[in-house]
Amino acid sequence: MAADKLPPEANKPSSLLRTVKAVAWGFFGVRKNSSYQEDIKRLTPLHIIGVGLVAAVLFVVALVVLVKFVVAP
């Protein structure tokens, strides 16, 4: 019954770009409450976990490459 009151665009599945943006804002820890509430309605936990894991791996790889670049003779 509550889903009937949502606007039609709230029922649309989320795109990969929207999921990546939501995860990126989560990494920074800065997010408007209205955007957060909209993401909760659209994003699926499986997509968030997948994109979050990929982002974490890329972040660690970037740090390792940066350290090797700085420390390398």
Features:
single chain; about 70 residues; mainly alpha
Structure write-up:
The protein has helices at residues 16-28, 33-42, 45-71. The chain has 73 residues and is mostly helical. The chain has one domain (15-71). It is elongated.
Concise synopsis of the structure shown:
Helix content is 68%, strand content 0%.
Tally of individual helices: 3
How helix-rich are the residues, as a percent range?
55-70%
| Total count of domains | 1
Low-confidence stretches: none
Major β-sheet, in short? Answer: none
Mean pLDDT: 81
Number of strands: 0
- Overall shape: it is elongated
Strand fraction: under 5%
Order of helices and strands: HHH
Distance linking N and C termini: 65 Å
- Radius of gyration equals 17 Å
Structural class: mainly alpha
